[in-house]
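To close the section, here is one more complete example, presented without commentary so you can practise reading it yourself. The ligand is pantoate.
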Amino acid sequence: MQRILAAAGREIVVVIVGPGAIGCLFAALLAEKGLAVALLDKNPERSLLLSREGIRVKDSAGERLVHVPCEADPFRLSPPAFLCLCIKSFDTEAAMRHALPLLGAQTVIVSLQNGLGNAEIAARLSAGRPILCAATSHGSTAECAGVVRHAGAGPTIIAPHTAAADYHARAFADMLMNAGIESHVTPDAATLLWSKAAINAAINPVTAIADVPNGAILEREDLRMQAEEAALETERVARAMGINLIYDNTLEAVQNVCRNTASNFSSMLQDIRRGRRTEIEAINGEVVRHGRRLGIPVPVNEELLHRVLEISADRR
Ligand code: PAF
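Output:
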């Protein structure tokens, strides 16, 4: 079967798996800077639509259209240098299995996802290939298939998950920087993932339950206190596992993300509104699981976990 190239005469450098809010945003930002990027989508109808219509990015400067090839059949793409997972944590295993034909001997896998445990699944299925973890503070909302609202920029931090992946982490960060996406490398993936989990455990369920944009956490005392306590519990659990978060001050870090993405609807709220499964188990659920295991009380995370599961069950 003939494999397509991302652009005439060029091998694909990045395949982004999952055309959701972050997947479409990153694909568009990279393609705009001339990088050979393609999207892999499990949904054939949507992938045809995206290839035909392109990705529409809306931000404070206006609106623009970026064309990115999108495929549902992995055999129609050539193996990329980086396979970047931008899917929900509960889809990681299925998406990795779908993408397996795309993995070349040199392909590096990047988990640019919320939640804990994704890199472990990717590592189990990728036969020793290098794995990176990445966390981004970009706020992006999918208004509908291929239409994203870019509500705020922030740094993207990358860490090697597997041994000897430092070189690849730097190469991935350089590639993002060349495309205007602020990126840094940090040496420890566990630190990175738990730091991101603290932000998500605070912002995502609180905004999802209250049905408000991220900025409301700074305006409403009740929401701010709940979000801050969820972040502090997460920090305590991480510390008990020997993991120090990257922030000098975790509460300030939560507030900064709320400020930088004030008009953004968190990914969990977007899922609730669309009646889709949320990532609550991979975020607050993991904090609760480890908290119980280590004997650290995490009552706010427990409450948020149960409330989001209830709301999500009602909506679905
Ligand atoms: O999941 C999300 O929505 C994002 O990770 C973040 C940073 C909380 C912004 O909305």
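Once you have examined the tokens, check your reading against these statements. The chain has two domains: 7-187, 191-315. The pocket of pantoate is lined by residues 114, 137, 139, 199-200, 203-204, 214, 257, 261, 264, 266-267 (CB under 6 Å).
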